[in-house]
């Protein structure tokens, strides 16, 4: 475990990269207990402060976890998932992750929702909050709003068993395209409680607006995702088939 002290790269980051490589290559498997920080400092010939920072970064990323009085361990490997499958209406049959509807209502749109859906403030929308699960653990909060005038027959409870895409189509609305925006936030009290994470933890945010074949916004959703359980990626073909 040798570091190159002539490089401009900080020593803690070099330590972090070496530890990360051992995890990613499977040399240190799930549940493996790391040497103590003193032992790692001796192996790398650096200070314990340097090792502590490297370990803390990997803990933040969810690749390591600490147990008080016992030590530091390798976390369960996170799943990989194409983020487009997570936030678009489509998806292969049977590929839908478990969802639980925790709130639904028909209510007047506020300024923000009205702006997203290009409707007038006060117009009726179907509002839903759902929890998305990965391995029986809450992984995302989904806030969804549909234009009531276009989706009067939409049943929020049906979203626990079927894709929103299918339910909207079955109500007679033809969908054309989706626009997606990305950002990030830190967990507030509500997100921390629902997702069982620490307040202030980083969260990935995806906003989606879906349009009908007449270019009219019909649905706006905001996905607030923890990324310690799933490693999201984007993959697409460079050439049309």
Model description:
- The chain is an alpha+beta fold.
- The chain has helices spanning 11-24, 37-44, 48-60, 83-87, 111-117, 164-170, 189-195; strands at 64-67, 71-74, 79-82, 99-108, 124-134, 137-147, 175-186, 202-212, 217-225, 230-233.
- It has seven helices and ten strands.
- The chain has a six-stranded antiparallel sheet.
- Strand 5 (124-134) and strand 6 (137-147) form a beta hairpin.
- Helix 2 crosses helix 3 (48-60).
- The protein is elongated and about 65 Å long.
- It starts with 10 loop residues before the first helix and ends in an 8-residue tail after the last strand.
- The mean pLDDT is 88.
Draw up the topology in text.
Elements: H1 11-24, H2 37-44, H3 48-60, E1 64-67, E2 71-74, E3 79-82, H4 83-87, E4 99-108, H5 111-117, E5 124-134, E6 137-147, H6 164-170, E7 175-186, H7 189-195, E8 202-212, E9 217-225, E10 230-233
Parallel strand pairs: 3-10
Antiparallel strand pairs: 1-2, 4-5, 5-6, 6-9, 7-8, 8-9
Helix pairs in contact: 1-3, 2-3
